Amino acid sequence: MSNRQGFIGVFDSGLGGISVLKKLVSQLPHEDFFYFGDTGHNPYGARSADDIFDLSKAIVDNMVCKGAKAVVIACNTATAVAAHKLRTMYPQLPLIGIEPALKQACDAHIYKHILVLATPVTLRMEKFHQLRDRMCACNSANVKISALACDGLAHRIEQGNLDAPDLDNDLRTILAPYIGSVDAVVLGCTHYPFVKDRIVSILGNPVCFDGAAGVAHHVRDVLQDRDLLNDQIERGCVTFATSAHDAHQLDLYEQFYHLPQ
C-alpha cells in the first residue's frame, strides 16, 4: 500500500543539512519534511565510525516510528559511515545519502585540478577512496584530484555566527595550500555551502560543486518510481527538531533555512 501522505525525514549532524533540505523543498514543494539536526552530538567529523553509525541508526529508527516514507541522510560523513548498513536494515525504506559531487566535476572534462573539501572522517572512509579512484581511472592523467580535511570547519559553521570577523582568517588558514591553484572545488560537507562564496573567493574563484541538487532530483525520481509522491495540492510543511538542549537552536535552524543560497 502506498504511503503518499507520509513525511520525508532529513537529518544531519546539525544545521548543515538545511542546505540539502532547501533543494528538496524546491524540488518537492507538496511534500511534508521533518528535519532533525543532531547538534547535541555535533561534530560527527570528530567521532568514531561506530559512534556515527549508532547515532544515525537511532535517528532513522525514530523517523520510521513516526511514519517517514523516505529518509535523506543530508550529511556526507553519516552517509559514508552508515548508509549501506542502514539500507540492509531497512530494505523497504527509500534511504538516500549524499556524497561529494566529485563525479559531476570530473564529468565536465574541463578541470585540471579539483579540490575536495570534507571532514576528516569522510576522507578516511573507503567509500571516498573508491569514488576518488574511479574518477581518477576514468579521467586518466588529465585531472589532478586533491582532498583537504577541514577539521573543525563544520563545527565552526554550526555555531551560527557567519559574520564573525575571524571566520575569513580561519578559512584562509585552512585553504592556504590551494589558494590560486585549483579550477574546481567540491564541497564535501553539507555545512560548507553556507560559506561557499567565501571559499570560492579565497581560493581564487574556482567553479564550485555540491551534491544537494543532485540528491533532490534523485529523491524525486525514487518517490515517483515507488508511487510515493504526495498528491496533495497544498504546499507541504517543514518541521524542525534537534537533539540540542537549547531553545535557541531551532531559531538558528529557521534562520539558516531562510538564508539566500
From TrEMBL:
Keywords, alphabetical: Cell shape, Cell wall biogenesis/degradation, Isomerase, Peptidoglycan synthesis
GO terms for biological process, alphabetical: cell wall organization; peptidoglycan biosynthetic process; regulation of cell shape
Pfam families, per the entry: Asp_Glu_race
InterPro entries per the UniProt record, alphabetical: Asp/Glu/hydantoin_racemase, Asp/Glu_race, Asp/Glu_racemase_AS_1, Asp/Glu_racemase_AS_2, Glu_race
Catalytic activity: L-glutamate = D-glutamate
Active site per the UniProt annotation: C75 (proton donor/acceptor), C189 (proton donor/acceptor)
Amino acids binding substrate: D12, S13, Y44, G45, N76, T77, T190, H191
GO function terms (MF aspect): glutamate racemase activity
Enzyme Commission numbers on file: 5.1.1.3
HAMAP family listed in its UniProt record: Glu_racemase
UniProt record similarity statement: Belongs to the aspartate/glutamate racemases family.
Its job: Provides the (R)-glutamate required for cell wall biosynthesis.
Protein name: Glutamate racemase
